């Protein structure tokens, strides 16, 4: 495998172990060692999905995104707890503050994971960086009482794969020379950026492992996946990734969504749907104002009872963080959603974000409730009806 031309780097991917469940176990230590799943209202008899689960629950096949009822079928003795995002955010701030005592070269990747550029940290070249990684784990444990797993590698792609190889509380080091033995035997889905659809296409080509993908002719990948994605697949499978650790970035969108206790019809259940949509708009507007952003593109997302996802959006003349303006646009978008099946999920998204006050349009509202979906509204083309895009 050709060596990378990138200057020497030591990048860490730190992933908190079963984060939400671990936070809950701090409050309920009597549940340690038991199968526990976090999701929805914490009641498997109600609609909702698993957000995360302890490793004991995962042994029964319980996974993130699984319906709570299905999880209860797989493990009747599993303990189900509701999500508490305020508490999870508090612990997220704690573990990131602990990392910041080592270096400020941190890329925030969400509530429970970060990339860290450790290249300039004293002692990072000792034992391939393992002592520095263990020191970070100790600081996180002291600050939160929680464990984390760390992958150390020359780049972000390999570090991300490595952090998942020895959970929980593991440190895994992968250098370029280790790629054939450590990375190539893994399934292609271990590469972040290869989803289920790409996996199926690769399987059609007889490429199931990362090593098989690395050995595939570049011309074949380009012909099947196009120039950009085909080239990326070839580079990723060979362990090459020159992306820097980005220490500051702007969000591209903010969204809120909810899964209903029972499936709702766009027309026959209009009142509860309208109330839910209005509340989601208020919540996302509050999120925008709290973080100092405004957005121009307002969209809605629905998931039908057959799990098909449809999105509709519109772009305003100017950015807004006003709940009334977001609500008006969201209801217009919902009016363009086909009422072909009942809905199990509804979401609102605001994209095209800018800092509030930069180029913000404040649209007044007359206070009248938006009309029901499909009621005397102009019918616009329903392009992209089968779009799998998520908010």
Task: Explain how this protein is built.
Helix content is 34%, strand content 20%. The chain is an alpha+beta fold. The strands form 3 sheets. Strands 5-6-1-7-8 form a 5-stranded mixed sheet. It has a 4-stranded antiparallel sheet with strand order 9-12-10-11, with helices on one face. Helix 10 packs across helix 11 (227-237). The longest helix has 22 residues, at 270-291.
Give the helices and strands, then pairings.
Blueprint: E1 11-16, H1 19-27, E2 36-38, E3 52-53, H2 55-58, H3 68-74, E4 79-81, H4 85-100, E5 106-108, E6 113-117, H5 130-144, E7 148-153, H6 156-163, E8 171-173, H7 179-183, H8 196-204, H9 210-215, H10 218-225, H11 227-237, E9 253-264, H12 270-291, E10 293-304, E11 309-320, H13 323-334, E12 343-355
Parallel strand pairs: 2-4, 7-8
Antiparallel strand pairs: 1-6, 1-7, 2-3, 5-6, 9-12, 10-11, 10-12
Helix pairs in contact: 4-5, 10-11, 12-13
């Amino acid at each position: 495998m050709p060596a990378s031309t990138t200057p020497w780097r030591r990048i860490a991917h730190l992933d908190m172990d079963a984060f939400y469940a671990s936070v809950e176990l701090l409050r309920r230590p009597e549940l340690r060692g038991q199968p526990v799943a976090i999701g929805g209202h914490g009641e498997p008899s109600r609609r909702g999905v698993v957000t995360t689960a302890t490793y004991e629950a995962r042994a029964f096949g319980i996974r993130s995104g699984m319906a709570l009822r299905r999880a209860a079928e797989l493990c009747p003795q599993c303990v189900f707890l509701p999500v508490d995002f305020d508490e999870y955010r508090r612990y997220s701030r704690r573990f990131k503050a602990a990392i910041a005592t080592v270096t400020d070269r941190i890329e925030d990747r969400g509530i429970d994971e970060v990339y860290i550029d450790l290249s300039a940290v004293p002692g990072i070249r000792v034992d391939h960086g393992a002592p520095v990684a263990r020191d970070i784990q100790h600081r996180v444990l002291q600050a939160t009482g929680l464990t984390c797993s760390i992958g150390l590698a020359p780049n972000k792609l390999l570090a991300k794969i490595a952090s998942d190889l020895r959970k929980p509380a593991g440190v895994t080091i992968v250098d370029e020379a280790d790629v054939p033995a450590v990375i190539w035997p893994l399934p292609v889905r271990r590469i972040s950026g290869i989803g289920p659809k790409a996996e199926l296409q690769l399987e059609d080509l007889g490429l199931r492992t990362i090593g098989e993908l690395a050995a595939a002719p570049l011309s074949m990948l380009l012909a099947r996946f196009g120039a950009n994605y085909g080239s990326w697949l070839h580079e990723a499978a060979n362990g090459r990734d020159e992306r820097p650790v980005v220490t500051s970035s702007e969000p591209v969108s903010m969204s809120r969504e909810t899964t209903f206790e029972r499936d709702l019809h766009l027309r026959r259940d209009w009142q509860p749907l309208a109330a839910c949509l209005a509340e989601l708009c208020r919540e996302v507007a509050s999120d925008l104002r709290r973080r100092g952003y405004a957005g121009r593109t307002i969209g809605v997302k629905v998931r039908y009872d057959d799990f098909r996802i449809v999105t509709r959006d519109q772009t305003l003349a100017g950015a807004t963080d006003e709940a009334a303006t977001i609500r008006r646009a969201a209801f217009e978008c919902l009016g363009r959603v086909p009422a072909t099946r009942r809905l199990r999920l509804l979401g609102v998204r605001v994209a095209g974000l800018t800092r509030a006050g930069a180029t913000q349009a404040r649209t007044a509202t007359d206070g009248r409730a938006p009309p029901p979906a499909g009621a005397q509204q102009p019918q616009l083309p329903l392009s992209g009806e089968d779009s799998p895009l998520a908010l």
